[in-house]
Design brief:
mainly alpha, transmembrane, 67 residues, 0% strand, membrane, single chain, 2 helices, transmembrane helix, 91% helix
């Protein structure tokens, strides 16, 4: 991911002390998880919206056909 690449670049640029690098590693892992959950939530919402609209369209189509 982009956040992982940026985090690795930051870590390779400054290797001053291990506490700072471990803190940055944890923060990039958190950023990765935030991006992953955001993408998962967005894709699920889009899928739900598309499926709901498609389902209602099919229901109206069946109602029109049966009448």
């Amino acid at each position: 991911m982009a956040a992982n690449f940026i985090g690795n670049k930051i870590l390779s640029d400054s290797k001053k002390n291990s506490k700072e690098s471990s803190r940055r590693t944890i923060s990039t892992k958190h950023i990765d998880w935030i991006f992953f959950l955001l993408i998962l939530f967005t894709s699920w919402m889009l899928l739900e919206a598309v499926s709901v609209s498609f389902f209602s369209y099919n229901v109206w189509l069946y109602i029109i056909i049966f009448i």
